[in-house]
Design goal:
globular; OB fold (Dihydrolipoamide Acetyltransferase, E2P); alpha+beta; Endonuclease YncB(Thermonuclease family); 181 residues; single chain; endonuclease; endonuclease activity; signal; nuclease
Length: 181
């Protein structure tokens, strides 16, 4: 399992560096409780916006219906799970690349004696999704496989029949915006 995680992280780094300028030589950092979590896949630290590469959390304001029939904020559920992982595992993150406004990172979390990909953990638990590019393909295909496995197991938010993939909601919003122009 550790070898697969190392290989996956190496492939991710190669895939990302092929299309973007990376911050070569950037030291890794530990993501500690107390950072300002913005969503279930992003945070602000030292005045900089960070985001997990290849992950899409539920959008704040999107909802699902829990087992008791109550409408819940899906984005808040994703945020709470990211917060719990940060608190419990103190992930180590490495900068992959930086855009004008966002630094994209890959993070690993300590669970027992294992180091696990934080994005994998979030997606496998069913509280985050594989990010999708504008052309509809996954940013990082292995995360789409993890997402399908979580969906098949009805993990996390997938247990609720009305949960919608954020990519669907974002695409619908882009379509509506184009139609309004």
């Amino acid at each position: 399992m550790k070898i697969q995680a190392v290989i996956r992280t190496a492939i991710l780094a190669i895939t990302v560096s092929a299309g973007f300028s990376s911050e070569a030589g950037s030291a890794s950092f530990t993501l500690l409780p107390g950072v300002t979590l913005e969503t279930g896949d992003s945070w602000t630290m030292d005045g900089r916006h960070y985001r997990l590469y290849g992950v899409q959390a539920c959008l704040r304001g999107s909802t699902y219906t829990d087992r008791s029939g109550k409408r819940r904020d899906c984005g808040e559920a994703s945020l709470a799970v990211l917060g719990a992982y940060v608190r419990d595992t103190r992930p180590t993150c490495a900068v992959l690349f930086t855009s004008a406004a966002t630094t994209y990172v890959a993070c690993s979390a300590s669970v027992g004696s294992d180091r696990l990909d934080l994005a994998d953990l979030l997606i496998a638990s069913g509280f985050a999704f594989a990010a999708v590019r504008a052309d509809g393909l996954p940013q990082y295909p292995p995360y789409a496989v993890v997402e399908q496995m979580a969906r098949d197991r009805n993990a996390g938010l997938w247990q609720f029949g009305d949960v919608q993939h954020p990519a669907f909601l974002l695409a619908r919003a882009r379509q509506a915006k184009r139609g309004a122009q």
